């Protein structure tokens, strides 16, 4: 197996029992099941082709939470990448609305704080209409009393969440972070370049 290792920019460090160690660490592979060319990252990558890869087919996240993107420069479908192994593309893409096998860029989610995550969702755009505060995981917003299948706007007060188009954490994924847009997602089109609908039916906190 050909291996290339390079750390991007300055490592984010935390104190551990073994001394100072990278908090964000992920290894990407060009082939499925952790085969072929691979490279370790501790910082964002805006275009995997700049590192000599055609595509990413499997991923091993050793620490931290990351978000992957279908296209370069953090555009297109979003994929939540929490600690663990993703041996093939559908392990991280989940049950998306259409078949997608590309992941061309990725970055750490610095503000992920599972135990203290908190957000407000609003019925309409511009933080209008009915609202409710969320601080847990919700496999079905409708089951917990939300008024419909759509969310017009959101404010992330603390931490980071992944929102899904359908109940049971299925469908399009939208990563919402308190340190992006100052936590304000005033319009549903702010959720990502791939967003085509305000439909949100399940939400969970991001593990780190």
From TrEMBL:
InterPro entries (UniProt xref): Beta/Gamma-Crystallin, Beta/gamma_crystallin, G_crystallin-like
Keywords, sorted A to Z: Eye lens protein, Repeat
Family annotation (SMART domains): XTALbg
Molecular function in Gene Ontology: structural constituent of eye lens
Pfam families: Crystall
GO process annotations (BP): lens development in camera-type eye; visual perception
All copies of domain Beta/gamma crystallin 'Greek key', residue ranges: 24-63, 64-110, 117-158
Keyword Isomerase: no
Its biological purpose: Crystallins are the dominant structural components of the vertebrate eye lens.
Family membership: Belongs to the beta/gamma-crystallin family.
Name assigned to this protein: Beta/gamma crystallin 'Greek key' domain-containing protein
Gene name tied to this protein: cryba1l2
């Amino acid at each position: 197996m050909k291996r290339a290792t390079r750390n991007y920019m300055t490592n984010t460090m935390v104190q551990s029992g073994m001394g100072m160690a990278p908090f964000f660490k992920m290894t990407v592979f060009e082939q499925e099941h952790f085969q072929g060319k691979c490279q370790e990252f501790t910082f964002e990558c805006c275009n995997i082709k700049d590192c000599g890869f055609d595509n990413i087919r499997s991923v091993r996240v050793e620490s931290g939470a990351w978000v992957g993107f279908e296209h370069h420069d953090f555009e297109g479908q979003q994929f939540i990448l929490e600690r663990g192994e993703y041996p093939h593309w559908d392990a991280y893409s989940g049950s998306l609305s259409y078949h997608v096998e590309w992941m061309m860029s990725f970055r750490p989610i610095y503000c992920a704080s599972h135990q203290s995550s908190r957000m407000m969702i609003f019925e309409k755009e511009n933080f209008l209409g009915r609202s409710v505060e969320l601080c847990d995981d919700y496999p079905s917003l409708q089951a917990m009393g939300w008024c419909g299948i759509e969310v017009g706007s959101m404010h992330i007060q603390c931490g980071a969440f992944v929102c899904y188009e359908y109940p049971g954490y299925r469908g399009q994924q939208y990563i919402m972070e308190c340190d992006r847009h100052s936590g304000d997602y005033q319009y549903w089109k702010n959720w990502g370049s791939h967003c085509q609908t305000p439909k949100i039916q399940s939400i969970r906190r991001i593990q780190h």
